Amino acid sequence: MTSDTRDDxxxxxxxxxxxxxQHFSGDSLWERDPAxxxxxxxxxxxxxxxxxxxxxxxxxxxTLNCLCPYRVSAHSQARxxxxxxxxxxxxxxxxxxxxxxxxxxxxxxxxxRTAPDATLLAHLEDARFAPFIIFPDDQPDYADRVVGIEAVxxxxxxxxxxxxxxxxxxxxxxxxxxxxxxxxxCLPVLPLHSERLTRYHLRKPASAAHLCTAExxxxxxxxxxxxxxSAILDxxxxxxxxxxxxxxxxxxxxxxxxxxxxxxxxxSE
Length: 269
Ligand SMILES: [Zn+2]
Description:
alpha/beta, Alpha/beta knot, five-stranded parallel beta sheet, two-stranded antiparallel ribbon, 9 helices, 31% helix, 11% strand, binds zinc ion
């Protein structure tokens, strides 16, 4: 579960508009008045939805502040499988994909209510893996499945690979995925208990206690003892946040932030 997460209605609005709005200043997009030959503004407001922003192929961020130089590989014993809501996939502000940039064992599956992903189903049958579904423990009907973070150590001591399954979507989407996916019903539920407050600026969370997907992952890594991977993901998330926010203001960062500098040092080691 991620709590990026305002309502579906909120996240459905296009967060790209402010970035794109100012991109129609070029003469070529303006019609010319046939009488005077002078440019005149379009009759209808120009509807840009980020389509005019030049994006990097690698990181999908605006090229103005590309994230690629800060991409570093980390290692962690625990893995992530993201079960991503179809509406979340193409959002540039989605932070779930940052996890896979850092940890190459990460797998992303699209959630469809009626058609579970075949690879995911096969993984769930594979005894090498010990998957946990990350979800709050606030409902009584699955209380018997709830485990604590120490369960992660227990499975790895038993020689299995701990896997965190994160439901990547808005709060409502995550709840729906949790409730409507019978193949997840047998898995232990691991709630993330954390005092951490979100540092995510690109979407406005309902509460500062609602962490976005990358932050949930960083916190799970930290609590399960994968401290180095946690620190790298945290820095990469900060770099993403700052790069994206600057590009929205049409500002090119003139110097790398401290998180960016740490990532660069990691990368050159
Ligand atoms: Zn890039």
